[in-house]
Amino acid sequence: MNTVLILLPLVLTILFSLATVPILVWMERRIAALIQDRLGPNRCHINGIRLGGIIQSVADMMKLVFKEEFLPSHIKNKFYYLVAPSLAFMSAFLTFMVIPYADNITINEKTYYMQALPTDLGVLWFLAFAGLGVYGIILGGWASHNKYAMLGSMRATAQVIGYEVAMGLSLVSMLITYGTISLNEMVTYQSQSFFIIPAWGIVIQPIATIIFIITAFAETNRAPFDAAEGESEIVAGYHTEYGAMKFGLYFVAEYIAMAASGALIVTIFLGGYQLPYLNTNDLINNFELVLWLIIAFAAVTSIIFFKWMKKHNIFEMPGLDEKKVYATLIIGFTAFAIVVMSYYALGFSEGSSVGVMILQFAIFTVKLFFLHFVFIWVRWTLPRFRYDQTQKLGWNILLPLSLVNIFITAIVVVGVNYGS
């Protein structure tokens, strides 16, 4: 048990970063298809099982893994050319290490931290490695000896410089508000109430929230801030000369950076792993009631999903009957989950810290995937900003706004402390 609880945060970090990339690619394609009023990936299958199109993402991943590694002959600095994608990938992955997935749990007087790297550096760790990631882009563009790659890397550099300042200043407002740089303590702060509404960061610091979300899009080179790639202007930007798994590392790094930014937004601005009005002690004390609510929710959502699948999953494929396979899996999983939760809810076992920890994992996951949806939704809704528009937004609007927000926050915090 001890070993499991120690390794659990590391396993979750790998799941939320590396293992979710095929799912994020699938979400990107399905949501893009929904917005553009088309079907999206729905043909690739294994013996009739398509998993809603996710088999296509797995096939693409396998293609990148087994593709021939080709080194262009004009590349002079081979070491820097090869190490650049790894630098971008590792920086994105390491930003995830400080995200808390649940509250600290104490068993037999020993406390276990639900962070892969339980450090008090918190936000500083994220900023350090998020800023380091751009070196992979700069290095790749320079080492490619290609004018389009160089232009892309220069755009990325200018964009990161312009937006990282505003991002850091928006976080300064949150540090003043929370009075700590520990991400876990920030989540604990948000379990309180602000008058009658939850004291989430998005409620008490709406300007900082908007600035941080906009700068997070720019830091991850997601549309509408993807001028560094700009395929209609500079081919593919900094990764023009990359292929196979070298390109795959850049590709995966972008999605991991998006996931890490989403996880930080959830942690700092959306209450982290907490439910509104319910902190960890409230969940433990009302564990049975919470479980009954979850059981009712699981039963209702299963019925709704069955009806949705019966209406929309009408395209027949050779092989297994896909609808029967899904129905069997969903019924089996839902029944198993309801039996396990009923065991606790009927009082056969006392509500435990482990049960609340699992519930907080689920809460964090739901919030994180909602942020993934927002990232994808924005990409397929807004057009790419011109390079000069991107710079004006960063330097002329976001930077002054973040400075004003710090000034107002400091006055309010000092006034409140003086009054109390």
Automatic annotation (TrEMBL):
Gene Ontology cellular-component annotations: plasma membrane
Per the UniProt record, which residue ranges are transmembrane? Answer: 6-26, 79-102, 122-140, 161-181, 193-218, 247-269, 289-306, 326-346, 358-378, 398-418
Q: What is its EC number?
A: 7.1.1.-
The UniProt catalytic activity note for this protein reads:
a quinone + NADH + 5 H(+)(in) = a quinol + NAD(+) + 4 H(+)(out)
For membrane topology, the record states:
Multi-pass membrane protein
Q: Which UniProt keywords apply?
A: Cell membrane, Membrane, NAD, Quinone, Translocase, Transmembrane, Transmembrane helix, Ubiquinone
Subcellular location as annotated: Cell membrane; Membrane
Name the Pfam families on file.
NADHdh
The biological processes this protein is annotated with in GO are: aerobic respiration
Q: Which GO terms describe its molecular function?
A: NADH dehydrogenase activity; oxidoreductase activity, acting on NAD(P)H, quinone or similar compound as acceptor; quinone binding
Q: Which family does it belong to?
A: Belongs to the complex I subunit 1 family.
Describe its partners and assembly state. NDH-1 is composed of 14 different subunits. Subunits NuoA, H, J, K, L, M, N constitute the membrane sector of the complex.
Function, as annotated = NDH-1 shuttles electrons from NADH, via FMN and iron-sulfur (Fe-S) centers, to quinones in the respiratory chain. The immediate electron acceptor for the enzyme in this species is believed to be ubiquinone. Couples the redox reaction to proton translocation (for every two electrons transferred, four hydrogen ions are translocated across the cytoplasmic membrane), and thus conserves the redox energy in a proton gradient. This subunit may bind ubiquinone.
What's this protein's name?
Answer: NADH-quinone oxidoreductase subunit H
Which source organism does the UniProt entry give? Answer: Candidatus Sulfurimonas baltica
